[in-house]
Amino acid sequence: MSLIDSLSWRYAAKRMTGNKVSADKIDSLLEAIRLSASGFGLQPYKILVIENPELKAKIQPIAYGQPQAVESSHLLVFAAWNDITEAQIDAFIQLVADTRGLSVDMLGDYRGAIAGSLLGRPVEAKQNWADRQAYLAMGTALAAAGELKIDTTPMEGFIPAQLDELLGLEAMGLHSVLMLAVGERDAANDFMANAAKVRYAKEDLVINL
User: Fold this and answer.
1) Which residues contact 206 (CB under 8 A, 6 or more apart)?
2) CA 25, CA 31: separation in Å to the nearest integer?
3) CA-CA distances (angstroms) from residue 173 to 50, 84, 91, 142?
4) Are 177 and 38 in contact (CB under 8 A)?
5) CA nearest 48: which of 209, 204, 168, 147?
6) Is the pLDDT of residue 191 over 80?
7) CA torsion 140→142→147→153, rounded to 10°?
8) Which residues contact residue 79 at a Cβ distance below 8 angstroms, ignoring those fewer than 6 apart?
9) Which of 41, 35, 46, 29 lies closest to 143 in space, CA to CA?
């Protein structure tokens, strides 16, 4: 299946069967998220993987009763950093150095570019930037899930403060941004399962200059 076919196949499932997605497919999905693009490559977020039925049941009312919260095989929470600090940037630069066989000193200009762009911003602005990187990761997840023939529902509809408290995110230096329900579409009970995909025509979407 080509990427275009995969994107045509996928949709935001409104109901799921509760059937389990295989561990190897979940691992592939998480690996795709790990490889996603992010600003400076910093990846200022974590992915929480929730499979426990009791915990998903507690999340459902926080997600305004959406059935996918409990009908999913796995619920992924994309949680962004609450702040971006020199220590976090230094840890990333060390990772780059270790991965590429370089000295930290050789990466001074790179570190300076990251620090110069981010450290002077107010905390709220840094959180907003980190949130947008989580959205990039979500986009990668949706495309990868389509390739893997995994059904998904991206979810912005939840109460972040309540989810953060339930999951103890503040203590981790994180805040919730998005959730992704992962599972198998319940075509018999999902009114959108066989609906035509509605997208603007390319000539109405793309502006060539």
Assistant:
1) none
2) 10
3) 19, 10, 15, 26
4) no
5) 168
6) yes
7) 160
8) 45, 46, 47, 48, 134, 167, 169, 172, 174, 175, 176, 177
9) 29
In this prediction, residue 8 carries a pLDDT of: 95
Which of 87, 83, 177, 174 has its CA nearest to residue 136?
Answer: 177
Structure tokens at 148: 């893997």
Q: Which token pair is 171?
A: 């203590």
- Alpha-carbon distance of 169 to 159, in angstroms, equals 13
Structure tokens of 190? 């999902």
Q: Any residues with CB less than 8 A from the CB of 11 and at least 6 apart, and which? A: 192, 193, 195, 197
d(CA 116, CA 120): 7
d(CA 111, CA 109): 5
Whole-prediction pTM = 0.96
Cβ count near 101 (within 10 Å): 6
Backbone phi and psi for residue 68, each to the nearest 5 degrees, phi listed first: -60, -25
What 3-state class would DSSP assign to 121?
coil
**Picking from 1-10, 105-114, 172-181, which range would have the lowest pLDDT averaged per residue?**
1-10
Rg value, the chain, Cα: 19
Average confidence score pLDDT of the chain: 97
d(CA 174, CA 44): 9
Split at pLDDT 50, 70, 90, the class of 1 is: low
Residue 41 confidence class, pLDDT cut points 50, 70, 90: very high
